[in-house]
Amino acid sequence: MTDTDKTQDRVVIFDTTLRDGEQSPGATMTHAEKLEIAGLLDDMGVDIIEAGFPIASEGDFNAVTEIAKNAQNSVICGLARAQFGDIDRCWEAVKHASQPRIHTFIGTSPLHRAIPNLTKDEMAERIEQTVTHARNLCDNVQWSPMDATRTEIDYLYRVVEIAIKAGATTINIPDTVGYTAPRESADLIAKLIENVPGADEVIFATHCHNDLGMATANSLAAVEAGARQIECTINGLGERAGNTALEEVVMALKVRNDIMPFRTGIDSTKIMNISRRVATVSGFPVQFNKAIVGKNAFAHESGIHQDGMLKNAETFEIMRPEDVGLSATNLVMGKHSGRAALRSKLEELGFELGDNQLKDVFVRFKALADRKKEIYEDDLIALMRTATDPEEDRIKLVSMRVVCGTDGPQQADMVLDIDGTEHKTTQTGDGPVDASFNCIKALVDHSARLQLYQVHAVTEGTDAQATVSVRMEEDGRIVTGQSADTDTVVASTRAYIHALNRLLVRREKTGSDKREVSYKDVS
Ligand code: KIV
Ligand code: ZN
Predict the structure, then answer these.
(1) Is the CB of 205 inside a 6 Å radius of any atom of ligand 1?
(2) Which of 146, 151, 160, 218 for mutating ligand 1's site (highest number of atoms within 8 Å of CB)?
(3) Who's near 99: CB < 8 A, 6+ residues apart?
(4) CA-CA distance, 88 to 78, in Å (whole number)?
(5) Residue 178 Cα, ligand 2 centroid: separation in angstroms?
(6) Would the pTM of this model clear 0.85, i.e. be above it?
(7) Does the beta carbon of 169 lie inside 6 Å of ligand 1?
(8) DSSP secondary structure string, 496-510?
(9) Which site among 31, 44, 297, 347 is 20 to 30 Å from 325 CA-CA?
(10) 177 to each of 95, 108, 190, 448, how far by Cα in Å?
(11) Would you say 109 and 123 are in contact if contact means Cβ atoms under 8 Å apart?
(12) pLDDT 10s digits, 430-482
């Protein structure tokens, strides 16, 4: 199936995890991670991968270029503003794919027209010129009127017609700010198909953000009205409240095929695997009650539900865990399991590890197995959440000890290895976590502000691991860090250090700060 196949019941899946998803603050992925995710998307049957925004940075350009070279089945698409330079740069990157696509866009609503200060006529002319330019380079061109759902309908008809005449093969209708509602989303697509000359020669796409929690519903309503491409991301990753989640539309179309008779080319059994990888590499954990991929999506707690499940799984499950790639057994390993078994179990869970990473994970696995009798899949996934390569981390936790209790202040002693040299300090704080974070602040000079601190228990029992996520901001750069440990304070400290290590990488990448990690030696 190609993306221009217009079989009535086939819906094209356009994944933008690596572009729109990666745009969410703090979700930056490394080059290798982007390549890995693109490989998984290609393998699961995604029709079109939007691999990045080539003009945005050298890194984006290189990632799109390499993804284009490696793609096996998917169309590889790059994003470009309505400017010749953007479009040329995009083509330079995607042209290596056997099936390239250029996606060019401009904001058409009154609010967005005001930014470049273009009149309606001037913007119409710009659209005509840029789509023509893109089409002269590539015969597969997608055009988007950004903020379409807040654009005057007559103007939308006019510019969509211009884009079609100029050679666009897909017209994407973005609900950029997640403002529309299902009935309105359907109406808009139906009206465009009915009123725009040439509409029957192109595919209409829907691209919905989730600000009001209606993205998936809006996308499916658009399909019922005639759209045949859904734009989405894994885990719904994306700016603000995110995008339509790939796993939700795919499973909704599968489970409710009786009322929505459309099909996708996605192998749904690969969903869980890629969801976990995206959560790990983006640093955005999946909320527990998230549809399809949340930890509780197939969990049954109450006695009535458990009883029903034992008698007939269909009583409380509308799809089987295996349909999304969840294995039935969760209990996996114990302290006697070896390195090869760990590698193979992690591969089964979707984690490909280099030898150094495996070495580090194995040490942490053994330490965990000493403290915790039973290791579940969720424990291993939590262990993998400290995603950076320990060999490359510039700041490492060597040791820590905390004194806590009813009589404060609480106190932490800490030794950190910073660029190969050990530094130690003792600090107090309002609780053990605060005291530990004060140690890090005392040793590593930074101005990052902690924006979010979250703790979750991975499994049950008092020996359960805690996963900790932190989000920090420094000079507009947002980074996240995660870690897991049976000791909540250690997990918190490692998560903070993980985020700081990412911040150092970001500082280096943006070239805005090449200084050594400076530290205050307070030992
Ligand atoms: O949300 C949006 O409008 C976009 C466009 C670039 C298509 O992501
Ligand atoms: Zn978007």
Answers:
(1) no
(2) 146
(3) 2, 3, 71, 74, 75, 76, 140
(4) 11
(5) 9
(6) no
(7) no
(8) HHHHHHHHHHHHHHH
(9) 31
(10) 31, 13, 21, 29
(11) no
(12) 999 999 999 999 999 888 999 888 887 776 677 777 888 888 888 877 888 88
